[in-house]
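**User:**
If convenient, please work through this fold.
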Amino acid sequence: MRRDVHIAIKGPSKCGKSWLRQKCLTDAIIVQCRIGMTVEDIYRQALSSIGVQFDVQRSSETNVSAEISGGGELKIPIVAKAKADVSGSIEHNLGSGVSLDFTTSIQNLEFVANSIIRSGKRLVVEDFHYLDLRTREKLAFDLKTFWDYNCKLIIIGVWTQTNLLTSMNPDLTGRIEEISVSWKAEELGEVIRLGSQALNIEIDYNIQKDIIADSFGNVGILQSLLLKLVEDEADIEETQVAKFYITNPDFYINAAKAYATQLDGRYQQFAQTLSSGIRQRKKSTGIYALAMEAIVKAKDEQLMYGFSRDEMFMIANRKEPRVKKGNLKTVLGKLVELQKPEAGRSLVISYDESIDSIFAVDLQFLFYRKHHTMQWPWEEMAEEARQQSLFDEDSEP
C-alpha cells in the first residue's frame, strides 16, 4: 500500500480477500458492486459516502439527472434554483439554457479523485466481477486517469486471468499490482498445525490430508470443516489440559457429511432459481440445460481455473448436434443474471467473457457435489427440450 500503484486483489469466495483488505486498511470508502452498476454509479456511491455534494451529470442524450443531499442546489437556470430539503434525485429534459457544472460532476474524474484524496481514505471497489465486461473495461481505463491524479484504488473480485486489468488497459502496466489470494496445501496444513497447537490437540495425518484435499485450496472451507470436526465431533471447544488426539476416521466422515448437508439448502436454491429462469427462455431451454449439465459434471480443475466454451461446446454438441457455438456464448453470458444476484443471492458460477470461460465463484460447490448426491434438474430439462425441439438461439433481451 506504500507503493505508488493501484492494487487488485483476486481470489475465489471465502479465500480471505476482504479479510486481507480489512487487516491492512481499517478505514476506507467501500463500494459494493452489483449487477447493472456503471462506473458512474460507483463514483456516485463513493462521493455520497463521504458527504461530497456533486452537480448534475448526463444520464443519456436526452436527460440530465442529479443526486442531491439535503440543502443542495441544482445549477439549472430553467427551474429557478430548485432546492431539496431531503436527499433524492431530480431529472430534467435537456433544452436550451440547461447548464452542467462540470467542475463538480461525477463525469469529472479530477473532481472525483481530489474528493477521495481530501477524505484521507482509499476507495475500495468490492465484487468487481459483478460488473459487466464493458463496465470493467471502462473502469480499467479510468484507473489510468486516477493514477495520473495520484488517487490509488483497490479492486477486489473473483477472476482467473492473470493481470486482468492490465490486459484490458495496457497503460496500467507498472501502475497496478495484482495480488492473488490463494492457499497451497502446505499453507493449509500450517493453519491446522497452529490451530491444533492453540487447542493442545493433534489431528491424525490421514484426516488432515482428507480435509486439505476437500478444501480445494480455500481456507474458508478448511475452517468450516475443522469446526465441524473439532467442535461438533470431538467435542472440543477450548484448550485441553492434556493433549487430545483425534484419530477416528468416522469423525471426519461425519463432519464432511454434516457440512455438505448444511450447504444443501444453498445449492437446492441455486438449482431451483436457475432452472426456473431457464424455463422462461422458451426457445432455447435445451441449450441452457445442456450447458448446465456440462458445468456440474466438469472437472474440479476446469471449474477452478476456467471451463472454456470450446470444451463445453464439444460436450453439448455430441449430445445434441443442433447446438451452435455462437448460441452457447449468448447462453453463458446470461447465466449470471439467472442466478438472481440482485435478490441478494451469492453467485455460484460466473462467465468471464474476456477468457470465454465459466468458473466457480463459490468453491464450496465443488465440495458439495463430492459429498452430496443431488438430482440436478438439467438432464430432465434437456430431454424435454429434445422432445419439443427447444434448441433455437436465445434471442430474448
Observations:
- Residues 349 and 361 are 5 Å apart (CA to CA).
- Residues 57-98 have pLDDT under 50 and may be disordered.
- Residues 249-279 form the longest helix (31 residues).
